[in-house]
Design a protein that fits this description.
- The complex is a heterodimer of chains A (476) and B (193).
- Chain A is α+β, with helices and mostly antiparallel strands.
- In chain A, 17% of the residues lie in helices and 26% in strands.
- Chain A has a 5-stranded mixed sheet.
- In chain A, strand 4 and strand 5 form a beta hairpin.
- Chain B contains 6 helices and 4 strands; from the N terminus they run αβαβαααβαβ.
- Classes of the chains: A alpha+beta (476), B mainly alpha (193).
- Chains A and B meet through strand 4, strand 5, helix 3, helix 5 and strand 13 of A and strand 1, helix 2, helix 4 and strand 4 of B.
């Protein structure tokens, strides 16, 4: 790999981690290129439809794919040219002219729809030693708006994905309470509910990018964040029901997976905006996301949002579980580690154009991306199209919601010369997204030695080359 | 069931104002804040079945005991396949090294192990009991867990190889990195405008 000299400045485990990420992304890129090269040789831009309102290419991606698929379907279902249907899609025949024959039958899909077979974006997995303890990245480069489709939400599992019968699942709340309680899912759904749009971001998002640009795509550099409309019961409701005793300060949340995953949650967060969620984007929460019940801690690092929630133990002190001592702590240069670094600070990234895309020629492009903060709503996003010399305000898509992805857009006329694109955001506290260099300086990482791999929220830079190719670079 | 509107208002007004102070994000539009009394009382048996967590001061540690010698056999049978006979972790299994690395945290090439990084012995007991071994999580008896912990901490030169490990002695163990953690000081970059 060019430019990935993983010398001993990282410990062996981190080096292996980063090398694995590089290989996984490479595989995903190769797979995507194979898919497209056989089907869209005339494709002029691999990145986005409809970008040239005044200069329409001969075939848009969708039209072209539809055309090739037609001939393939005409040959035979299951022919080599038509081999793989993307995950989450069904292989339906494509009509030569859909206005001249009746379409497929209403509700013949069994009553639950699927995405088009021409849409192929998927999560990809970091190749950990076991598939039980692993994670996958959301394809932010193909995302639109602010919501992450439930099937594309990033994952982090520590003991595989349990398959739980909701009729047998209970939540036990005990410890420093007046009345310990056991709730079935039916019980929990009787409480007044709330729906909230919130992001969840893994604190390891961007872990490969501290020292040098390492992964190529925005899915690789930023794909451990997703936004969902979550529905459930405010945790405060349950706390009032059980009666929290004087002196209670922490809650242990525990999952019903093979890791019996646990994290300690500060009581003030529990009273503030924590939720027990059972729905995701209007339907039951997906098994990968914690079915039937998940703890949601808006703005907190992803691993604290305990999935398959089975127990809340209320206490006066943190429990010091494995995850909050040996794992999700931030070792700094000098040997001390930050602990309970729970909040995800303000961060933004341009998702179009982004790494591995190619702009076909000079002209108009709409730069677009996401901004979010664990401390509230995004106040503004600025975009630079000249490597950070000048910054201009981007338009924010409304509604701008607290602790939620915010979509920004910025019109850009590219003159065809090489340049660097960046975004930086400010949240409601006034905090402005820093550069990676500022983070390194502030955390005392001298001599180029890096301890912590977590909580990177620095400005992302995408270099646009003269040929339109977009790549990941560091630029302060 | 009929509700006296007047009384209801009197009863809930102070409660509601309290909620508005402490719970601005979650106040209900109806003003009714419970109690709802859904669910059932969690019995001692319900809780005991799940209540496996152990805290640094020893709270939650079960009865039972073991030592380094007995633990050696437990480790060989249940742990060594992934963590290695040398406790260094077997490549390709995903299992971490358990010992070594002491004093490496500030070296620029930190090696995080139970010995070098974990601040509390209680965490080792808690984690082994809840999630180990990987191929049969939660299958060890409490004595086996005490044994595995005694063996690992014995090999790490943290716990006396001839001593008995039980609830009392485990709570007294001081890990080498017990003072290695600091609270979150962020924000640590100030570009405020």
């Amino acid at each position: 790999m060019d430019g990935n000299n993983l010398d001993n400045e990282y410990d062996a485990a981190t080096q292996a981690l980063i090398q694995g990420m590089i290989e996984a992304e490479e595989k995903a890129i190769t797979r995507r290129k194979k898919q497209t090269s056989s089907e869209q040789e005339e494709e002029q831009c691999e990145c986005k439809d409809g970008m040239f309102p005044d200069d329409v290419p001969v075939t848009s991606r969708r039209q072209f794919l539809a055309a090739t698929a037609t001939s393939a379907a005409a040959l035979a279902v299951g022919s080599a040219a038509h081999a793989a249907v993307p995950a989450g899609a069904v292989d339906y025949p494509v009509q030569d002219d859909p206005t001249k024959v009746q379409g497929r039958l209403t509700n013949d899909d069994g009553g639950y729809g699927s995405r088009s077979q021409f849409e192929s974006e998927v999560r990809w997995r970091f190749p950990t030693a076991t598939k039980e303890s692993s994670w996958t990245m959301t394809p932010l480069d193909s995302g639109n708006g602010i919501i992450t489709p439930s099937g594309l939400h990033f994952e982090r599992h520590h003991g595989g994905i349990p398959n739980i019968n909701p009729a047998q699942h209970t939540l036990v709340v005990h410890g420093m309470v007046d009345a310990p309680k056991k709730y079935t899912m039916e019980d929990l759904k009787r409480f007044p509910s709330v729906s909230r749009f919130h992001f969840i971001e893994c604190s390891g998002n961007g872990l490969t990018e501290w020292r040098e640009p390492t992964l190529k795509t925005v899915q690789g550099t930023h794909g451990l964040t997703s936004t969902t409309e979550w529905t459930g019961v405010p945790l405060s409701t349950i706390l009032r029901e059980v009666g929290v005793k004087e002196g209670a300060a922490w809650i242990l949340a525990e999952g019903a997976d093979a890791a019996v995953m646990t994290r300690s949650v500060p009581m003030d967060k529990a009273w503030d905006d924590a939720m027990l969620v059972y729905a995701q984007n209007g339907e039951a929460i997906r098994p990968e996301q914690g079915y039937p019940l998940r703890l949601l801690l808006p703005g907190f690092e992803g691993n604290t949002h305990i999935k398959w929630l089975r127990r809340l133990d209320i206490s006066d002190k943190p429990f010091m579980t494995r995850e909050e001592t040996s794992k999700y702590t931030d070792l700094l240069n000098g040997g001390k580690a930050r602990q309970f670094t729970l909040t995800m600070e303000a961060k933004s990234v341009i998702t179009f154009p982004s790494g591995e895309m190619k702009l076909p020629r000079a002209g108009f492009y709409e730069i677009s991306g996401l901004a979010w903060s664990g401390k509230g709503h995004i106040k503004r996003v600025e975009v630079s199209t000249d490597g950070g010399v000048n910054w201009q305000l981007a338009e924010l898509q409304t509604p701008v919601l607290p602790k939620c992805h915010t979509r920004f857009r910025f019109p850009w006329q590219w003159d065809g010369k090489p340049t660097i694109l960046q975004s930086r955001c400010q949240d409601e506290t006034g905090y402005v997204q820093p550069t990676i260099k500022q983070l390194v300086e502030a955390r005392g990482l001298d001599g180029g030695k890096y301890g912590s791999i977590y909580h990177l929220n620095g400005i992302q830079s995408w270099e646009v080359a003269a040929d339109g190719g977009v790549s990941n670079v560091h630029k302060y | 069931m009929s509700i006296n509107i007047k009384n209801r208002g009197v009863f809930f007004a102070p409660l509601l104002s309290l909620m508005l102070i402490t719970l601005p994000a979650m106040s209900s539009s109806t003003g009714y804040q419970g109690p709802y009394n859904f669910g059932t009382a969690a019995t001692a048996a319900d809780i005991a079945k799940l209540n496996i967590d152990v805290m640094p001061d020893g709270r939650g540690l079960p009865a039972g005991s073991s030592n380094y010698q007995k633990g050696k056999a437990v480790y060989a049978a249940k742990c060594a396949a992934c963590h290695g006979a040398d406790l260094a972790g077997v490549k390709g299994t995903g299992a971490a090294a358990l010992i070594g690395g002491r004093g490496s945290l500030a070296s620029g090439s930190p090696k995080k192990t139970v010995e070098s990084y974990w601040p509390y012995a209680s965490t080792v007991f808690d984690y082994v009991k809840r999630a180990m071994p990987f191929n049969a999580p939660g299958s060890l008896t409490d004595d086996e867990v005490y044994g595995a912990v005694a063996y690992v901490l014995g090999e790490a030169n943290i716990f006396d190889k001839s001593a008995t490990l039980n609830a009392k002695s485990l709570a007294k163990i001081e890990m080498p990195n017990k003072d290695g953690f600091i609270p979150d000081p962020r924000p640590d970059v100030f570009n405020y405008e």
